[in-house]
Specification:
The protein is mainly alpha-helical and about 230 residues long. The chain has one domain. Helices cover about 70% and strands about 0% of the residues.
Length: about 230
Amino acid sequence: MNSESKIIVKNGLWDNNPALVQLLGLCPLLAVSNTFINGLGLGLATTWVLAGSNASVSLVRNYIPKEIRIPIFVMMIASFVTNVGLLMNAYTYDLFLTLGIFIPLIVTNCAIIGRAEAFASKNKFWPSLLDGIAQGLGFTLILCALGAIRELVGQGTLFYGAEQLFGEWAKSLTLSFYLTDHKFLFAILPPGAFVFLGLLIAIKNVIDKRNEEKAKAVKMAQLGLNNEALAHE
């Protein structure tokens, strides 16, 4: 993987994560991520649409009139959303019903339209495809992390409903950490999602700040060594 590809992947997964940095697609992010499996299902669907739409837009970018590019991008995105909706309807019907309106609403996800406009319409096929995959996986990671936290705090389980995505054999994947007759609704409902997303953003900011301080310290140490070497000369 060359340096450009590494930058694209790092941007999608961390530096320019659509959920933690760009704060795009928050409606499905907050509404659907009440369990890990729901988050994973929507994240994979979004990744498919992002990768497909980015790749398609990059291929026809030189043939689309600038005046009507956004409506054309939306139609291209809608075709991939229809595709993933039909696939989920056929193979993961229960999860399709659980996610409900948020599958067709992928068409209006700002993260997807934003990448088509900001990146795919200006770059070649492979970088655009890689950007779509990286941005989609970055969004999926946050959906899964948020879903896992909310599910664990709210109902004491993890991977609940895995059979909806992977089949009946996956029922055994469900982990129970504590039993309760009453779920912690604050964690399961959208208000809890706002709080936990804020915590994830705060954790990322702390990590970024520490990494920045370490980089500055290393740079200062290198400058000190170079000055010392010059002084000896």
